[in-house]
Design brief:
The chain is of the alpha+beta class. It has four helices and twelve strands; from the N terminus they run H-E-H-E-E-E-E-E-E-E-E-E-E-E-H-H. The strands form two sheets. A seven-stranded mixed sheet has the order 2-12-1-11-10-7-8, with no helix packed on it. Strands 4-3-5-6-9 form a five-stranded mixed sheet, with no helix packed on it.
Length: 189
């Protein structure tokens, strides 16, 4: 048996890609302590914390408007499956954290979708999970966005402009109602 045949099977690693944006990033340099050059390994049993306290947070944001510990990400294995995921928890008592459309208060947590936008204050973070098989650790890969993430995402998902009939109800209104229920005021019709 050759050394190639006897070698351990290489496993893929779950990687969390995080793209950061803040409108004042050029002059305030709040991301100067983040490593945008290479991937970092994080032990599976560690909690990845984000905030301004570098003694507690693995990812420090140099901004006095950011909480000492803003939020955390915890890697976990889903019950009765071989799938892995991340849980995000708001650790700021003063600032609400938004994950896509879900607003999290202090100590609220949700499963992180495979692709979502995390926002608080003027900060926008695009989170994308690249699946893997490793159980002992995951990786993070940080990126810096040149333009607002929310603006780019919203512009790409806007429907094309369509004429609105005289009754004031657009046909796309009924299509959007089928996707998810939305409460509206009867005066809006």
């Amino acid at each position: 048996m050759t050394s190639f045949e006897a070698a351990d099977t290489e496993e893929t690693v779950t990687c969390l890609h995080l793209t950061f944006y803040h409108p004042g990033q050029g002059e305030k340099m709040m991301f100067r302590c983040l490593n945008f050059r290479s991937r970092e390994q994080v032990r599976a049993d560690d909690t990845a914390k984000f905030g301004r306290d570098s003694s507690v947070c693995r990812y420090s944001l140099m901004d006095t408007r950011v909480s000492r510990i803003q939020f955390s990400l915890q890697f976990y294995r889903k019950l009765h499956t071989s799938e892995y995921g991340f849980e995000i928890k708001n650790l700021s008592k003063k600032t609400k954290l938004t994950v896509d459309q879900t607003e999290l208060g202090y100590l609220n947590k949700v499963d992180l979708p495979w692709k979502c936008i995390i926002s608080f204050g003027d900060y926008q973070i695009l989170a994308e999970v690249q699946e893997g098989e490793a159980v002992d650790y995951f990786e993070t890969h940080l990126h810096l966005a040149e333009a607002p993430i929310l603006q780019e995402k919203c512009l790409s998902c806007l429907p094309s402009l369509q004429p609105v009939p005289e009754n004031g109800i657009s046909p796309s209104f009924f299509l959007s109602q089928e996707k998810s229920p939305t409460e509206i005021d009867e005066n809006d019709l």
